[in-house]
């Protein structure tokens, strides 16, 4: 039976119709308000299709013009000097502006140009104490998974998760390292700008830390100093002093790398993007340029520097343009005595020598490769590597340890470990070649977040060159504000951190023989674990 048309509407249908009516009323109201303010007017109907309900509106009369008072200030309109009958001064102004711009550019270029002068402490000192020789160098020295932000990935429970007794003992030893208790990391500002490179002095008598920053400053921290005692009655008014830190400026641009040769402990060599290598005498506190291009107009930023452990007279370095160089400091003619090889068409970000056999060295490049080289058979016209391994993304650094193992960090979020020691690298003859399919594959790959971005210095592995146990270990910072310590097998030993660390200690370094680890941040501050 058909439903009658007069059937009562459902509750849902009533509500829907009410909503439609409310919407139409609101639109009509808004339209009327817009028309009354002149913001909206109905479009005129098309000819021949005029609706009978349309009412033509009379045009509004223009508002009467108001005559300006004679004493009212006239509106000043822009007018050329020619039309105003004045001598045009635009050329003069333009010339002055160009001269001012050129002068500012010249000053900026002068700031970035390297300075080849011989520096004394007074020439370099930016801030801090004027260290004497005894204050800095004394007789004792001369003789695996990507983590969530800020989350610890290696805990006390992980320390005990091993059946290897030696590994467990080392894990407990490395995990017991604590932040320097004299000052918090926030108070240890060693450089004004972002730290790019760091080094420990090899001395075991005291922790002596050097840090180079983005603008060419060199910071020096003696971590054997003690915080002054605060008397109880002075506690309310006492302003606690910061640690004694000396900040020097031997370079005009980023200090990219530094090294102290084991047989020349009183000399620190620093390399910079200003294309120079300088030698700082830590006893006399002087700095002397040891290498630079012939002309100051030649720009060849240096990305890394190294020295053989048994040769204190030879410098090796790489550049951002892919060059590898060797120079004997005893040569009388610096520019003409430099040996040069073009090893890559792209930036070599890091390299290192095999300490006991320095004719072998490894390079890491922006072209995504880690390459192994033998300088004994290295052609200047067509250099060929012993072997290479290609990663998915660029390789940041390749670090050799004392037994022939290499650790690399890469933007593919991995740390790759290669053991050339067990492949007999010490006995390889000149001309030896490696099978890239089998012998150049990494022995271990550890997952590690290496996405530093623009404001954090690139993460690089750093070996302890003379560990006091058979287990080789290296440190590398992570993006969670910790420093990780791994063995050469990829086993994690420790994850160093602290509640007072507020930035990524991106530049992490090991002391040569002591279990001391330092990390440098983008704000120029230092974290020290001992």
UniProtKB/TrEMBL annotation:
GO process annotations (BP): DNA damage response; regulation of DNA damage checkpoint
Pfam families in the record: WD40 (PF00400)
Protein name, UniProt field: DNA damage-binding protein CMR1
Chain positions covered by the region annotation Disordered: 35-107
Function: DNA-binding protein that binds to both single- and double-stranded DNA. Binds preferentially to UV-damaged DNA. May be involved in DNA-metabolic processes.
Organism, as annotated: Talaromyces atroroseus
Lineage: Eukaryota, Fungi, Dikarya, Ascomycota, Pezizomycotina
DNA-binding recorded as keyword: yes
Coiled coil: none
PANTHER family referenced in this protein's UniProt entry, alphabetically: WD REPEAT-CONTAINING PROTEIN 76 (PTHR14773)
Positions of WD repeats: 360-376
């Amino acid at each position: 039976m058909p439903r009658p048309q007069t059937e009562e509407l459902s509750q849902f249908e009533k509500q829907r119709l009410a909503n439609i009516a409310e919407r139409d009323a609101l639109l009509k109201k808004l339209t009327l308000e817009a028309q009354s303010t002149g913001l909206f007017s109905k479009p005129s109907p098309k000819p021949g299709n005029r609706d009978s309900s349309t009412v033509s509106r009379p045009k509004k009369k223009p508002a009467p013009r108001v005559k300006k008072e004679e004493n009212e200030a006239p509106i000043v309109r822009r007018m050329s000097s020619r039309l105003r009958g004045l001598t045009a001064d635009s050329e003069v102004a333009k010339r002055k502006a160009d001269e001012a711009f050129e002068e500012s550019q010249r000053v900026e270029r002068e700031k970035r140009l390297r300075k080849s002068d011989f520096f004394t402490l007074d020439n370099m000192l930016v801030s801090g104490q004027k260290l004497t020789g005894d204050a800095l160098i004394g007789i004792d020295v001369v003789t695996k998974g990507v983590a969530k932000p800020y989350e610890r990935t290696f805990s006390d429970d992980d320390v005990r998760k091993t059946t290897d007794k030696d590994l467990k003992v080392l894990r407990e030893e490395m995990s017991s390292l604590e932040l320097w208790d004299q000052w918090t990391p926030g108070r240890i500002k060693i450089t004004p700008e972002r730290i790019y490179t760091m080094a420990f002095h090899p001395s075991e008598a005291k922790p002596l830390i050097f840090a180079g920053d983005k603008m060419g400053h060199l910071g020096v921290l003696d971590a054997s100093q003690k915080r002054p005692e605060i008397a109880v009655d002075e506690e309310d008014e006492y302003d606690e002093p910061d640690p004694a830190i000396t900040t020097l400026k031997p370079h005009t641009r980023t200090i990219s790398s530094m090294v102290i040769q084991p047989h020349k402990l009183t000399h620190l060599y620093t390399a910079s993007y200003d294309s120079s290598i300088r030698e700082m005498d830590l006893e006399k506190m002087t700095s002397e340029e040891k290498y630079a291009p012939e002309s100051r107009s030649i720009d060849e930023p240096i990305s890394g520097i190294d020295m053989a452990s048994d040769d204190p007279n030879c410098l090796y370095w790489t550049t951002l343009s892919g060059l590898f160089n060797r120079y004997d400091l005893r040569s009388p003619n610096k520019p003409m005595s430099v040996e040069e090889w073009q090893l890559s068409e792209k930036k070599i970000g890091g390299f290192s020598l095999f300490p006991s056999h320095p004719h072998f060295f490894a390079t890491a490049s922006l072209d995504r490769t880690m390459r192994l080289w033998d300088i004994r058979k290295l052609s200047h016209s067509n250099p060929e590597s012993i072997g290479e391994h290609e990663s998915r993304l660029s390789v940041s650094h390749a670090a050799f340890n004392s037994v022939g193992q290499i650790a690399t960090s890469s933007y593919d979020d991995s740390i790759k470990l290669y053991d050339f020691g067990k492949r007999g690298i010490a006995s390889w003859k000149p001309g030896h070649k490696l099978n890239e399919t089998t012998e150049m594959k990494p022995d271990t790959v550890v997952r590690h977040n290496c996405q530093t971005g623009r404001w954090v210095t690139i993460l690089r592995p750093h070996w302890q060159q003379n560990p006091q146990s058979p287990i080789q270990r290296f440190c590398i910072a992570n993006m969670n504000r910790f420093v990780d310590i791994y063995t050469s097998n990829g086993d994690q030993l420790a994850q160093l951190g602290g509640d007072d660390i507020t930035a990524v200690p991106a530049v992490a370094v090991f002391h040569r023989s002591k279990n001391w680890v330092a990390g440098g941040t983008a704000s120029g501050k230092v974290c020290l674990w001992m």
